[in-house]
Amino acid sequence: MALKAYGCVIKRRLKSWFKENTAKYSFLANIFIFLYKIFGRRPWSLGYNVYKFKKIKNVVEFHLGYFRQQELPRGYGYALDERMVEYPWVFSRLKEREKIILDAGATLNHWEILNLKYLRDRKVYISTISYEQFYVISPHTPSYIFEDLRNSNFRDEFFDAIVCISTLEHIGMDNTFLYTSDETKKENSKYAYLDAIKEFKRVLKRDGTLYLTVPFGEYKNHRWFQVFDREMVQKLIDWFLPSKSSIDYFKYENNQWQFSAQEQCKNGYVFDAYKERRNRNDFLASSQSVVCLELTK
């Protein structure tokens, strides 16, 4: 077991080194992007993530108007996964007064994201289940904590905002598949995510905001994550009991991401790249539909 855990840490550190250096050095990034393009822009192929984060960075820095006006250009996010809408959606809504932020699930923990101007004058705490790369980004290096989001170590009403991007669907599932060697995290509990929702509300300040995204559509348990349906989304809203709320839906259709509606997304499918053979011709990278919720305490 110790050998397995050690191997997992080494693999993550090598992956993190690669991610950080391709982000820092444009010549290295350009090589991988070139390879990604000439080999057909296939999701999860060599250079895919380098290309994706470069596109995300560009949208967040220069084109958040797409999300504020709720109108994405034709062909937006071709062959790219749901991060193409999740990150810009969050940054288009993050308020100037929200200075102390919890990244619940470490989805912000990428060199390109942490270096965005929108985070430079904020204090970011990154909560994750096990080791991830520690980025030193002077003068705004985030603080890292290892914990289960269902039992947070933070005191009541500590955060101005919580960002939880595509994390809730893993809570209560088999996290030993990708994220940890801790066998106690090999679970199969559909509604365990509600305990995290209660903790989010506890550690948020009054009038604080939860920015939350999950894959949405027809319910399916993939063992290491689950697809949220209408009933599960409504249940989390009922448990949080927001004073204000706003919900947006996005759907990948006709080889592009666009704003959508609950009814059009209710049969949304998630392509599990780790367990399914690619037999689709629409270049769907992962989730076909996502729901994004802004919930105010």
Describe this structure in words.
The chain has 297 residues and is of the alpha/beta class. It has one domain (2-296): Vaccinia Virus protein VP39 (Rossmann fold), CATH 3.40.50. Helices cover 32% and strands 21% of the residues. The protein is built from 9 helices and 10 strands. The protein has an 8-stranded mixed beta sheet with strand order 3-2-1-4-5-10-8-9. The chain has a two-stranded antiparallel ribbon with strand order 6-7. The longest helix is centred in the N-terminal third of the chain and has 23 residues, at 2-24. The radius of gyration is 18 Å and the shape is globular.
Shape-level CATH architecture? 3-Layer(aba) Sandwich
> Biggest β-sheet: count, sense, barrel?
8 strands, mixed
Output the radius of gyration: 18 Å
Number of helices: 9
Average predicted confidence as pLDDT:
92
Portion of residues within helices: 25-40%
For the record, the CATH class is: Alpha Beta
- What separation lies between the terminal Cα atoms? 42 Å
Helix-strand pattern, N to C? Answer: HHHHHEHEEEHEEEHEEHE
Integer tally of domains: 1
Shape: globular
- The quaternary state of the protein chains shown equals single chain
CATH superfamily: Vaccinia Virus protein VP39
- Strand content of the residues, in percent? 15-25%
Number of strands: 10
**What is the SS-derived class?**
alpha/beta
* Widest sheet: strand ordering: 3-2-1-4-5-10-8-9
State the CATH topology: Rossmann fold
| Unreliable residue stretches | none
Structure, briefly:
By secondary structure, the protein is of the alpha/beta class.
